[in-house]
Amino acid sequence: MPLRERDFMSGTRGTMAVDWEERIDVKRMREERKERALERMRDAGLGSMLLVDDPNIRYVTGLAMTGGSGADHYSLLLEDGAVVHWDTADHASNERYNCPWLNDIRYACPGLGNVPRASGSDSARSFLLDKMAQTVVDALEEYGLSNEPMGLDTGNGGLVSAFESKGVDVRTDDCTAVMEDARKTKTRDEIECLRQVAAICEAGFQTIVNEAEVGKRESEVWGDAVRELWRHGAMVQGGYLTSGPNTWPKHQANTTDRSIRPGDLVYADFYNVGYLGYRSCYYRTFSMGEPTREQEEAYETARENLYAVLEEIEPGKTTAEIARAFPDMAGEHADWYGADEHWQLTTNHWAHGLGLQLYEVPLVWRGLSPDHPIEIEEGMTMAVETQEPAGRQGVRVEEMVVVRSDGVELLSQWPVEEITVIDY
Length: 424
Hints:
By secondary structure, the chain is α+β, with helices and mostly antiparallel strands. It folds into 2 domains: about 45-185, 3-Layer(aba) Sandwich (Creatine Amidinohydrolase, Chain A, domain 1); about 190-420, Creatinase/methionine aminopeptidase superfamily (Creatine Amidinohydrolase). It is built from 12 helices and 16 strands. It has helices spanning about 25-45, 55-60, 90-100, 115-120, 120-140, 155-165, 170-185, 190-210, 220-230, 295-310, 320-325, 335, and strands at about 50, 75-80, 85, 105, 150, 170, 235, 240-245, 265-275, 280-290, 350-355, 360-365, 380-390, 395-405, 405-410, 420. Helix 1 (about 25-45) crosses helix 7, helix 5 (about 120-140) packs across helix 6 (about 155-165) and helix 8 packs across helix 9 (about 220-230). The longest helix has 24 residues, at about 190-210. It is globular and about 70 Å long. It starts with about 25 loop residues before the first helix and ends with a strand. This is Xaa-Pro aminopeptidase. GO terms for molecular function: aminopeptidase activity. Keywords: Aminopeptidase, Hydrolase, Protease.
């Protein structure tokens, strides 16, 4: 199926708030996300869901959860749409002032994560876990839901036991399924967030073109690019830049202090760059000076392999059908790795969902999809990535896309027909 043409004026419109055009409507996005979760929660027969996982909390509350010590914030979604949120004292105080859409914010007790771990005391850990569970039980009683099943998005045995000892009917699998189903397709504002983060990554690619020089270290160029991403309002929680022999196989330390040399291939992966929480995964390859014929052929293979997959993506197809478009074991260069099966080649050639996490539904991969297929749906967003060796170096390329009724639409726009040449 051919790539879908973007609609007129479909594209990024800036990150600032304006009154003269509609941009990302964050209030609408919060409300639509919560409504999706709430509708599926009711269908699953749950009276409430306790969310401990940061992306799930953000999906329902809009709060900018960025990871950390674990369970020092958690949210309870109730069947009438109300939300009770617990957080650390400082954060809770701030949220009460800045988040008027949340009207029941309480102080958290971290029963999981670094706080109980650092206590060094079994009795302290038991106290914290019991207190965390009790804060939720108290809220369930206040809202008249203590006798209804409660979903829980983490299968921590200690926390489940703490709730069960207090008479709560805990449903972990149901909650996981509810949130997965709510998040697997994206609203128009979520898609625009991903389009915006792709545009921000392109500012980073341009910075690499401007700043990469022979003799400059990978870490220096990467630092220049990251500075540009932050300047555009992104939160950079991952990514790397490698060069020369560090490009095949991918260097285990990612960005290093290696000096870039004439004739090097350079590639950058802007993954886990977030805009309003929505994460990128976006590769491009560069050449220091004109690439060799071997490098051009490797790039052409990687790009053709990627676009062969894009042509197969459409609503109604299964991940098993699409996975067949990825390279076979010979195309994966399995002999180079000494690998016998596709599952041994994680992250080399695959497509993965994008959203409030780097890896979301769906996953399209020869190592998994043929035996465990799921159906592709309109509104899914994903990154599709391939790679290819070029002598002692390698190329990588990746696109960010959204599944439409008539194919896929590219959210990424950096030129892909050939390697970007950096003159020196």
